[in-house]
Amino acid sequence: MKRMCLVCQNIDCKSRGSEQLIGELEKRIGAKGLDDVEVKPYMCFGACQEGPNIVLYPEKSWYANVKVEDLDEITEHIAGGPHVKRLDTIDPSLKELIYQLLDTGVV
Predict the structure, then answer these.
(1) Is 88 in contact with 63 (CB distance < 8 Å)?
(2) pTM above 0.85, yes or no
(3) Which of 18, 41, 87, 106 yields a CA-CA distance of 20 to 30 A from 67?
């Protein structure tokens, strides 16, 4: 199973640069040779005020208020490095709801 890096593409996240994050994240993941990871757009995670949002799945890590400068740390995490705790600010109940949707195949 491919791992996914889902990047929110709702209007709020887009207005804060999520489209650029997709391209930059693809470059970094490709440079690391992480062939088992796919970067995909996602409609909305429901945390618009915290965007741009990136969810790593099936790992279930959620990063909020992501900027291009954060992508190296996120890529390191995807490659097996430490979780980027400073970007993990989403309410646990919302995370659980979204993770349940993803578990049912809503990707």
Answers:
(1) yes
(2) yes
(3) 106
